[in-house]
């Protein structure tokens, strides 16, 4: 069954080896003043920074660097928005992974708003437009290069928010898999876990269709198979190209058009973890996943475990006991790609569990109204404790 | 392996029961003068014409009706373009199936060109823009509602051309599966065969990936399963909704981004058949499919039959003899949904086979350079003869 949906992704994907040569042509459509945004300098190590500076020799390039993982409203978004205003920026060029792109999306809307930017990010005020955004992706993970969302942390108030607006779809995303050859095993594993979790959030829904189940399972299969190759051979182009494309599809919505999913509960939980302890998003999601699955396992969800078991792990599921084998298989998979499956190993302090559970319920109403299980505070505490 | 690709589909899909109520809001973004285009009157039978006229009571609505299956440059495209110019049309509203939408796309570009419109359709002159197009789909088949292509016949010169331009993506496509409840068994079967063929054209390629194989197989599976339901229960919403969405995905490119396909040879063959004998496109494709497969079956293509056999028909393929069982399974499937598998039953005259083979090679250079088999005149004649 395909339920009612609206779908529109205007972003142009330019994918493959060497595609960046078209960057100047793309940027000049928007103007001459470019804000180049990036993170901790990995783009300098791989030579991408120099390549871009050479390509942009005829543009006025301003820079915002040092954008953090779990990008921060203060200083990064505020600094970027100020740079845009001061320099009449025509287009933002984000070069990096999901954090850099998310931060740049927030900059793009906040720069055109005179008031306090957080009012936009937190949904209090609606954006009326954004500076055009183009990106060059260097990490296969969040899918931000192909969606209209951004996740921003406000450390002053321990908050991490998902923000969405049609204005922040990138205009063009350049995806060259070679830029991910140097991504560490840890980041490769966490990026893949992030994308798998994105699909699982969409997969647990009550009106399955052959199309949607098939699309989602295909992309999970690709992620699982190719991450193993990429971990062993970091410069395997085939594996890196599938991972990169799979991650873009995973968060974009195209895999679940017409699904009845009512929320992204694992993300709500993880956002609290990252807000309190600044952990790597994909790792947090991987650790939570099996314990969230245990919590929502019921007769209503059994069919979902049946499909996952059959298609991904060759496990036939007839009973809830069988489904626990599927949950165990996910645990083993994430562990097998190198993610410690304990939050305490990432520095999470179990004394904060109750506070985080309260925070989750206060910040995302969908968690308490999830279609399968109304995750109350006790349920959240159980999931977090089991994940420690 | 994901090969280099560029992908951009700006069309907004508005899918589901009752979505048409938003039509006035969508149209008024473009202006007040609307050219309503439709076919033989089925939209009047199902009440859709009246529904739309009521919704558009505040617009100036001009009409072009009687658009043919295999839509004709003369009179339909020419008449439509003239109506646009005479009435300062702001937006074209196509209501119907692929023929109506294709014709409207051609009208949209030809209306803005002062010279002979066929020069644009045949690729001699490049379009510089198009009148915005919105559509309401009433037939699950060609996928024209979600792509940038149009196929137009010029009967004066026995030509049928595929035309593509970024300007002719529909702005918004309204897809309400209920409008397909009254589609005949014949059209339901032919529409499904069309979509399956679209995917097969993309599936036969030399650099398979887990993602692309999975996406394509998922949509074929959905089409095969749901067409049987819809043929038995024409008003089964679940089946009609999957068919409608599957057809939109089948031709849009999203299923084969990064594939290495070098042409759509079956379409080139069918276009000649329709140009000479005006047969139903999907039926022609279904009939050709098994015989085209026989022609290209080789060690190089065996892997493709392996995946199709395993995933769709539970046939294990190790040898070319096994692959013939898969070809037979496609033949039986198309026959089983009610398509006579002989071109002569559609009125094709075998005396024209040689002339059609010459026409195909003259009109589509990709047929002669197809990656697997360089389809020369003899090969085309073999395929057409076997299809009679």
What is the secondary structure topology, with strand pairs?
The structure is a homodimer of 388-residue chains.
Chain A lengths: L4 E11 L7 H6 L4 E5 L4 H4 L2 H8 L4 E5 L8 H14 L4 E6 L1 H13 L6 H5 L11 E5 L11 E6 L4 E6 L7 E4 L9 H19 L6 H23 L4 H14 L14 H13 L3 H16 L5 H12 L6 H17 L16 H11 L13 H11 L1
Helix pairs in contact in A: 4-5, 7-8, 7-9, 7-11, 8-9, 8-12, 10-11, 10-14, 11-13, 11-15, 12-13, 14-15
Characterise the protein shown here.
With 388 residues, chain A is of the alpha/beta class. Chain A folds into two domains: 12-179, Rossmann fold (3-Layer(aba) Sandwich), CATH 3.40.50; 184-387, Dehydroquinate synthase-like, alpha domain (Up-down Bundle). In chain A, 48% of the residues lie in helices and 12% in strands. Chain A contains 15 helices and eight strands. Chain A has helices spanning 23-28, 42-45, 48-55, 73-86, 98-110, 117-121, 185-203, 210-232, 237-250, 265-277, 281-296, 302-313, 320-336, 353-363, 377-387; strands spanning 5-15, 33-37, 60-64, 91-96, 133-137, 149-154, 159-164, 172-175. In chain A, the strands form two sheets. The first copy, chain A, has a six-stranded parallel β-sheet. Chain A has a two-stranded antiparallel sheet with strand order 6-7. In chain A, β6 and β7 (159-164) form a beta hairpin. In chain A, α8 (210-232) packs across α12 (302-313). In chain A, 53% of the residues are buried.
């Amino acid at each position: 069954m395909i339920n009612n949906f609206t779908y529109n992704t205007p972003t142009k994907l330019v994918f493959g080896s060497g595609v960046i040569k078209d960057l100047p042509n793309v940027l000049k459509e928007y103007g001459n003043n470019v804000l180049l945004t990036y993170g901790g300098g990995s783009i300098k190590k791989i030579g991408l920074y120099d390549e871009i500076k050479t390509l942009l020799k005829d543009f006025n390039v301003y820079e915002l660097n040092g954008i953090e993982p779990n990008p921060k409203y203060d200083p990064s978004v505020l600094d970027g928005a100020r740079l845009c205003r001061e320099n009449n920026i025509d287009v933002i060029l984000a070069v990096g992974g999901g954090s850099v792109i998310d931060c740049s999306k927030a900059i793009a809307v906040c720069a055109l708003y005179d008031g306090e930017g957080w009012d936009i990010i937190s949904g209090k005020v609606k954006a009326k437009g954004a500076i055009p955004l183009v990106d060059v992706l260097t990490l296969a993970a969040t899918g931000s290069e192909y969606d209209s969302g951004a996740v921003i942390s406000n450390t002053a108030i321990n908050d991490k928010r998902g923000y969405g607006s049609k204005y922040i779809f990138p205009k063009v995303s350049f995806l060259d898999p070679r830029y991910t050859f140097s991504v560490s095993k840890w980041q490769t594993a966490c990026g893949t876990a992030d994308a798998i979790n994105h699909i699982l959030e969409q997969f647990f829904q009550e009106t399955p269709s052959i199309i949607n189940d098939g699309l989602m399972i295909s992309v999970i299969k690709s992620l699982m198979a190719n991450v193993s190759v990429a971990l062993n051979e970091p410069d395997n182009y085939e594996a890196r190209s599938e991972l990169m494309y799979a991650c873009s599809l995973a968060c974009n919505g195209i895999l679940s058009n017409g699904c009845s999913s009512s929320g992204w509960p694992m993300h709500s939980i993880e956002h609290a973890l990252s807000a309190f302890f600044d952990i790597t998003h994909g790792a947090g999601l991987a650790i939570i996943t099996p314990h969230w699955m245990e919590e929502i396992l019921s007769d209503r969800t059994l069919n979902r475990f049946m499909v996952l078991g059959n298609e991904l792990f060759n496990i036939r599921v007839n009973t809830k006991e069988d489904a626990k084998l599927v949950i165990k298989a996910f645990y083993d998979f994430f562990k097998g790609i190198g993610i410690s499956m304990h939050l305490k190993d990432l520095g999470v302090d179990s004394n904060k569990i109750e506070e985080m559970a309260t925070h989750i319920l206060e910040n995302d109403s969908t968690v308490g109204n999830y279609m399968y299980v109304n995750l109350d505070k006790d349920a959240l505490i159980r999931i977090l404790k089991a994940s420690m």
